[in-house]
């Protein structure tokens, strides 16, 4: 695992999240429920990306020690 892998994970999060954020700025009312779900998905994607990055950095450090 390396920085390139992390970049792909982050790009995936942005691809899913950005359109939903755009919808969130335009929609309200009943559609707001769908937007809320998209926003939650975007937040989860970002959190997962950060977590994956942390795990990759940790495993890289361990492999350097060995």
Summarize the structure.
The chain is an all-alpha fold and 66 residues long. It has helices at residues 3-26, 31-65.
Description:
- The protein is mainly α.
- It has one domain (3-65).
- The protein is 89% helix and 0% strand.
- The protein has two helices and no strands.
- It has helices at 3-26, 31-65.
- Helix 1 runs antiparallel to helix 2.
- The longest helix has 35 residues, at 31-65.
- The chain is elongated.
Topology diagram in text:
Elements: H1 3-26, H2 31-65
Helix pairs in contact: 1-2
Task: Tag the structure with descriptive keywords.
66 residues; mainly alpha; elongated
- Count of domains: 1
SSE topology string: HH
**Annotation, overall tally of beta strands:** 0
Q: Give the end-to-end Cα distance, rounded to a whole number of Å.
A: 16 Å
CA radius of gyration is 16 Å
The largest sheet, given as strand count, sense and whether it forms a barrel, is:
none
Poorly predicted runs are none
- Strand coverage percent: under 5%
Structural class by sheet pairing and helices: mainly alpha
Helix content: over 70%
